[in-house]
Amino acid sequence: MSLFSRKPLLNGETQHKVVEAIKAAELRTTAEVRVFVEAHCEYVDPMERAVEVFGKLGMHQTEKRNAVIIYLAVKDHQYALYGDAAIYELAGGPAFWKTAAEHLVAYLKEGKIGEGLCACIIELSNAMALHFPYDPNITKNELPDEIVFGK
Fold it and tell me: Over the stretch 51-73, which tens digit does the pLDDT of each residue have?
């Protein structure tokens, strides 16, 4: 069974829903979440690509080192979740990230990419809000909320 559907990755309505999920998530936390989607992964290991993209997007420069990226390579059927140093450990280390990835995969297997991204954003934001709750003194959105599309 394919991990991704053959339909176009994200139509306009789905993109809008994903961006709205990001905005809603970030209202509850000082942490930042980004979604990066491309056709092919440049590496065998999608985590290596996620780490590279994380750096290229300047996500390691958030004030509290609490940014998270959801990475998808559609045609290669690869994905990765990567959190900066502070959020990675506080969220529960490898066990939390593995479980969140398994939940995303369950949606991807059904061809529900948009729903999977939104559910993943919510799951990640629950951990982000717990460990990096909203602070009214920090009103700056450190990273853009839109989905980033690669090659």
Answer: 999 999 999 999 889 999 999 99
